[in-house]
Design a protein that fits this description.
By secondary structure, this protein is of the alpha/beta class. It has helices spanning 48-56, 110-124, 136-148, 162-170, 182-196, 208-223, 240-255, 276-283, 309-318, 328-342, 348-362, 384-390, and strands at 4-9, 15-16, 36-40, 87-89, 96-100, 128-132, 151-157, 174-178, 199-200, 231-235, 265-271, 322-326, 372-376. Bound molecules: zinc ion.
Length: 399
């Protein structure tokens, strides 16, 4: 494992020590303070021989996403078996692979980022972590905090998927349900953290959730035989995974593990009920504006202004991808389509990307033979209440 060289601000490129816990950049001249990215000394790791160690050395605790420990901080992991999720070939689309993140502990991709962030919190000796969440990050933080013996303080919208509430309570987290959206939850954490002694583990306000999420980038490339696909479809709420995968691609190229220049188009997908990044992309803006009255049953996409919006938009444009929105009706239709024809019960967020894929095939942006990776970021079973409502299904006892 490499030691961390320094943390680098995504905006002003200041270099900050990782010896003590850090949140966002302390050197940016104007707000918002930039997110910090972890930078390593990779000099010992260069070349494909080092890459092959990843696969041959993946034993014991170093399974799952920790097979990439050679590009993660040198610490003892708090792990529940996250990562190395299935890459399923579509039965109908010759070029499409579905990355099944529902196979993670807590049933979603959030396990990766929070495994890494809680690992580092334990390493630093932090005792109280706080997070605003649209739902799944809350469940994942609660689980990993329980595994690490650390307090979790969670703020979620009152109407989160019921599973997120039940699991967070079951894991013993301090849960507050808020009348509002994740942005309102974030304000509460911001206002109270100093007084309460909480460490804020919000999306892109600490450096390590990106490090966990970047393993999706390494993993999808390794699972495709160390080759890039033509496009990666990613449901974009906070966008950490998209940012993390792009960082992984940069690192893999620096390491010589993949050739430079063939990166996939990054397709950021949102719901038309909350599409700040898609709107900014369409209007040519470099940042998003707060989306008013956000409403979609894809709960994870109800992020009215992601903290990392500028970084997400940069990546989408640099990759020659697109940011786009699909409607809740299209999302529901795609859930049923994939359930009935592929045997896969997608989360609403996952179905936003399968719906977007259909659209980009139909309009000729992609060919059926193009290799694409579609991220199902969570198990459909975590959303039974939301999806049942969208399907107009009621519990038989309630009729
Ligand atoms: Zn800065």
């Amino acid at each position: 494992m490499p030691s961390i060289a320094y943390l680098e601000c995504a905006r002003c490129h200041a270099q900050i020590s990782a010896e003590t816990p850090q949140t966002v950049c302390t050197q940016c001249a104007t707000p918002p303070a930039g997110s910090l990215f972890v930078r390593y000394d990779f000099s010992r790791l260069k070349g494909s021989a080092a890459r092959d160690v990843v696969a041959s050395d993946s034993v014991g605790p170093w399974t799952g996403m920790w097979r990439y420990r050679s590009v993660l901080p040198e610490v003892a992991p708090v792990t529940l078996g996250e990562g190395w999720t299935p890459m399923l070939k579509s039965k109908r689309h010759p070029g499409a692979f579905l990355k099944e993140e529902g196979a993670n502990p807590t049933g979603t991709f959030k396990a990766r980022g929070l495994a890494m962030a809680v690992t580092m919190a334990k390493h630093y000796g932090l005792r109280k972590l706080a997070v605003p969440s649209a739902g799944n990050a809350a469940g994942a933080l609660a689980a990993y905090a329980a595994a690490a013996g650390i307090e979790a303080h969670i703020f979620m919208p009152r109407d989160v998927p019921f599973a997120n509430y039940v699991e967070a309570v079951a894991y013993g987290a301090c849960v507050e349900l808020v009348n509002g959206l994740i942005s309102d939850c974030a304000r509460i954490v911001q206002d109270r953290k100093e007084q309460e002694g909480w460490f804020d583990i919000s999306t892109l306000k600490e450096p390590f959730r990106v490090e966990g999420k970047k393993t999706m980038g390494y993993e999808l490339v390794e699972q495709l035989g160390w080759e890039y696909p033509d496009a990666v479809f990613y449901p974009t709420g906070g966008g950490v995974g998209l940012i993390g995968m792009w960082k992984a691609f940069e690192e893999m190229e620096e390491l010589g593990w993949v050739p430079k220049g063939g990166r996939p188009k990054m397709i950021a997908v949102q719901s038309s009920g909350c599409a700040p990044v898609a709107r900014a992309y369409e209007t040519g803006a470099t940042v998003s504006t707060m989306w008013q009255n956000a409403a979609t049953f894809a709960a994870g996409l109800r992020v009215p202004k992601p903290y990392g919006d500028a970084i997400i938009l940069d990546i989408v444009r640099a990759s020659e991808g697109v940011a786009m929105a699909v409607s809740d009706e299209e999302i529901l239709a795609s859930i049923l389509d994939w359930a009935r024809n592929e045997g896969i019960f997608l989360s609403p967020e996952g179905a936003s990307v399968t719906a977007a894929y259909d659209k980009l095939l139909a309009n000729g942006y992609l060919k059926p033979s193009d290799r694409v990776v579609l991220f199902n970021t969570g198990a459909g079973l975590k959303y039974t209440d939301m999806t049942a409502e969208a399907m107009k299904l009621k519990r038989p006892s309630a009729q």
